[in-house]
Amino acid sequence: MTAALIGALSLLLRLTDTWSWWAFLWAPLLGLAIGSATYEWRLTARSRWRMPPMEWVLLIVAHLGLGTSLAVVGGFLHR
Asked: What DSSP designation does 51 have?
C-alpha cells in the first residue's frame, strides 16, 4: 500500500511543476490546522457561555489569522 501511494505521488509530481512539492509539504500542516480549528470550535460550543471576553478575542484573532494565512497561500490575497 505504501509503495503504491509513493508511486502515485511520484508520478503526480513528475507530471507537474515545482509548486506541487510545496503543496505536498504543506498539506499535512493544513490538515492539522483545520483539524485543530474544528476541535477548538467543538470545545467552544460546549462551554460557550463560560468563556471570558478576552478568550473570545483571542479565539477570533487566531481564526482570522488562520483564514488570512490560508487565503494568502491559496492565492486569494496578495502579500
From this structure: S
